Amino acid sequence: MGIAFIYLTRKGYLLSLLLIFWCTSSFAKIKRIEVTSTAPYKNGKAFGNAGSYQQIKGYAYGEVDPTNPLNSRIQDIALAPGNSKGMVEYVSEFILLCPVEKIKSNGLLFLSLPNRGNSFGADEALLKRGYVVLWCAWQGDVLPGEGRLTMKVPVATANGKEISDWLRTEYSVVKPVKTLNLSSGVFTGLAHHSYETVSLDNKKLILTKRIHEEDPRIPLDNNDWAFSDCTSVPFPGTPSTTNISIKTSFDPNYIYELVYQAKNPLVLGLGFAAIRDMTSFLRKHEINLDSSSNRIPVKATIIQGVSQCSNFIRTFLDLGFNQDEEGKKVFDGVDAHIGTRRISLNVRFGRPGGGGMQHEEHLFPVNLPPFTWDDRLDVISGTTGGILARCAQTNTCPLIIQTLSSTEYWQSRASLTNTESDGTKDLPIPENVRIYLVNGTEHSPMDFIDPITGFNTNNNPVAPTLRALLVALERWVLKGTRPPESTYPTLANGALVQADKAGFQWPAIPGIPFKGLVNNPPLLDFGRNFSARDLSGELKEPPKVVKDKRYVVLVPKVDADGNEEGGIQNIAIRVPLGTYTGWSLRKKGYGEGDLASLNGMFIPFKLTRSERIAAGDPRLSLEERYASNAQYIAAVKKAGEDLVKAGFLLQEDVTPEIENAIRNYPVKK
After folding, report:
1. Any domain includes 369
2. Is residue 108 domain-resident?
3. Which domain holds residue 460?
4. Count of structural domains within the chain
5. Which H/E stretch holds residue 19?
6. 138 is a domain residue
7. What are the residue ranges of helices labelled H in 66-217?
8. Is the peptide bond before 352 cis (omega within 30 degrees of 0)?
């Protein structure tokens, strides 16, 4: 049976048609697809040999059997309202891009997870290769607006009665603001659902502030804050069950914390089922574009997750969702970028946007073992586990490419994925996993002055490297061609070290503070109703910090310029114009001395030898490194050629990368 997407044409233009497609299959829990619009993608632009694409938008209506063991691990699924058949329902918004001519598709279904509901755009290099690209909503706490893809999930109840419990939330801001969403945090802002407070009376509650995570908490007077909205009226504002306001404004220098009684938990774990079932549904049915002769069969599937979505993938695999209800593998390949932890989606009162950073939301329930891909003993917690433990038991593990920026070592303890948790030895990684660090990169490359640090962020590009590795994953999945060997710092290759001054050997660059500070996650105890192993259950807030149990986080070693070793060195690192870091420290008034969220720094070299000597900069100047502009260009071209040979740059990206490097060179001779 094909998925019939029907189009009407008039004078050469495609018209949208609302179509209800019913699926009567018993195994695929997507019961119907509602198409709300169809249109030529980018006005019919042709993408290489794949030609033009069609964009299809709509909703997937799904249902799950709460008694099925593959679904029963979804938190509160047994407390969700059921339909007449006892099934729990959800609705996920989706966007699908398909080549107009089936013969132009390579048969690869590529699901790119929306990040906080944002689908972004498709990589044109992938469209040229004939990918079928899918975005499907999985996050039930995302609010509609600004093009975000949303998912509707039910509220859990106790036999129809309202459920409430204590919920801890933190607030950090970049600039003063009077009102914030109640249970949203620094990484979610105003675009996410807040769990309502049971009462507007704050008299028995305590809102605290502190500069650093481990500082004593300072209570605010209860008359100085309220459950209210002050965006349009003065404090105390309009009473609100979903907002919190402070009389004098939230201050960027402080971390604010509140434990309040929340109600009506969403069954957010259905997001795992939605991704599983939508993918399983599409790979079992041919995509019928306009006629029985133009169907696209799905040969293989890859899921891509960036940041929060990469953490979603790790949890998806950990909880066994890569096995569908027929017992078959859902995703053949995984492209997991800049995510090294799990996500708090499958807990009561879940908030998947939480960070778990060194400064922000440090005690959030995300930095908990297991960290490794395979099944291992964690020597700090004494528990055994691994992200791939469940899929290994059912032979449903995918091929995995994990890519990292430098920031993940400093802020998201990336070293724990492949070292003993006390930092004493390297651990092997499974044969179906590749790990790559792109040296000298920050979480999301950007180019601006960070108001939190006062320094320029790091715009060292990662996209060309990621594109080459994604094509390598495609070939691994479709043809069995093995990708380049893992390239990341280890104790064995001498590139993984302690972050202190003795081990890290940071060069004494004038005006750049360095403390050797990393996000060392403590072992946390969230109570007996919470399973740290499955990151599921009910949280007892605040958690108990097991102070005698500390993980050891290691970071990539740097050279005399402060640039990293032990990973993939792209053109910017092979032919540097400065120092590129994945970390930066907060300045006075912003929690001085703590790590600055997910941003790094670009610290340019001095132009001349005399300038660097006058400044006391130990790094060679540009004129000392490159005798002429021609010499610099030659070095850039050589770096590009070497990266292509190593499999870390596509030939089609060489010229743009060389042009970009030349454009950034500040000296013309």
Report:
1. no
2. no
3. 401-442+449-501+553-669
4. 2
5. strand 19-22
6. no
7. 69-72, 124-128
8. no
Q: For strand 333-337 and strand 295-296, is the pairing parallel, antiparallel, or unpaired?
A: unpaired
What tokens were used for 394?
Answer: 């059912």
What residues contact residue 489 under an 8 Å CB cut-off, 6+ apart? 415, 437, 495, 496, 554, 556, 557, 564, 565, 566, 567
Q: Is 40 exposed, middle or buried (0-12, 13-18, 19+ CB in 10 A)?
A: middle
From residue 327, give the alpha-carbon distance in Å to each of 27, 282, 525.
10, 16, 34
Q: What percent of the chain has pLDDT over 70?
A: 94
Cβ neighbours for 502, distance < 8 A, ≥ 6 positions apart: none
- pLDDT at residue 5 in the model: 38
Q: Provide long-range contacts, Cβ within 8 A and 24+ apart, for 200-204.
A: 200/226, 200/227, 200/239, 200/241, 202/226, 202/227
Q: Spell out the residues 6+ positions from residue 121 whose beta carbon is closer than 8 angstroms to its own.
A: none
Based on DSSP, count helices (H) and strands (E) in the chain, helices before strands. Answer: 13, 37
Residues 259 and 405 in one domain: no
Of the three residues 210, 231, 263, the one that is the final residue of a domain is 263
Please provide the DSSP assignment of 284-343 as one string. Answer: HSEEESSSTTSEE---EEEEEEETHHHHHHHHHHHTTTTB-TTS-BS-SEEEEES--S--
Residue 28 pLDDT > 50: no
CA pair distance 489, 418, nearest whole angstrom: 10
pLDDT, position 478: 97
**Secondary structure (3-state) at 150:** coil
Contacts of 618 (CB under 8 A, 6+ apart): 507, 508, 509, 560
DSSP 8-state code for residue 416? G
Which tokens hold the place of 168?
Answer: 């801890």
Angle between helices 270-284 and 308-318 (to 10 degrees): 80
User: Could you say which of 236, 263, 290 is where a domain stops?
Assistant: 263
| Strand ranges (E), 576-622 | 578-581, 601-604
Contacts of 215 (CB under 8 A, 6+ apart): none
Say how far apart CA 77 and CA 65 lie, in whole Å: 9
- Pairing between strand 496-497 and 555-556? antiparallel
Residue among 456, 510, 499 at smallest CA distance from 619? 510
Helix (H) or strand (E) holding 527, with range, is none
User: In the predicted model, what is the mean pLDDT of the chain?
Assistant: 92
- 316 close to 398: Cβ distance less than 8 angstroms: no
Q: How many CB atoms lie within 10 A of CB 388?
A: 23
What φ, ψ does residue 63 adopt, rounded to 5°? -150, 150
d(CA 368, CA 83): 36
Residue with tokens 């220098």: 253
Q: Is the peptide bond before 542 cis (omega within 30 degrees of 0)?
A: yes
* φ, ψ (nearest 5 deg) of residue 132: -95, 115
Residue type, 330: V
Q: What is the pLDDT of residues 275-330, one digit of tens each?
A: 999 999 998 876 665 545 557 889 999 999 999 999 999 999 999 999 999 999 99
480 located within any domain: yes
- 482 neighbors 476 (Cβ within 8 angstroms): yes
Confidence of residue 228 (pLDDT cuts 50, 70, 90): very high
Under a CB-based contact definition with an 8 Å cutoff, are residues 519 and 407 in contact?
no
Q: Which of 251, 429, 273 is nearest to 340 (CA)?
A: 429
Q: Concatenated DSSP letters for 73-101?
A: TSTTGGGS---TTSPEEEEEEEEEEEESS
What is the C-alpha to C-alpha distance for residues 612 and 381, in angstroms, rounded to an integer?
48
